[in-house]
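User: two proteins, same treatment. go.

Assistant:
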Amino acid sequence: MTLKEHKKEEKADREFQKKFKFEGSINILTQMMVDPAATEKRGGGKNLPLRRGEILDVIQFTNQEQILCRNSQRRYGYVPRAVMLHL
């Protein structure tokens, strides 16, 4: 990883912590997959765009209905638990 890529990732992580009021270091709890039968959704606000079969990193289980996740493009957002499958 180059210095430029590293700084870009650090900036994205700081913006995530500010936007979601997340304290402490970002640790991945597990990985989960978006249900291949789920409808694809565009993201918006604090919601992450969903693509069928996509593998997401779980950052935090926020409540009974949503999970805070990160996708492969290092974008963060909430995802409904109903569309997530354990690997």
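Protein 2:
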Amino acid sequence: MLPEEEVGGCSRTFFSSLVQLIPCRAAVAPFSPVPPTESCCAAIVTLGRPCLCLLANGPPLSGIDRSMALQLPLTCSANFPPCDVIT
């Protein structure tokens, strides 16, 4: 697990960032036609780009379509650029 200290501009751990995105679970499930809810979009804005990118570059997560998760800032009209995903 990553330390509590700031990692790549994110002041949260990987796990706490993931918990913050619980409202987005239905919107990022594989093959989900469900758009993000207002609470999901609020979570994306609160989480911010550094923590979303931390999740995007973290280990694979069961039940989460990473490409759909990376579309959330655009879908939610969050004003931050896309993450640079390390493959």
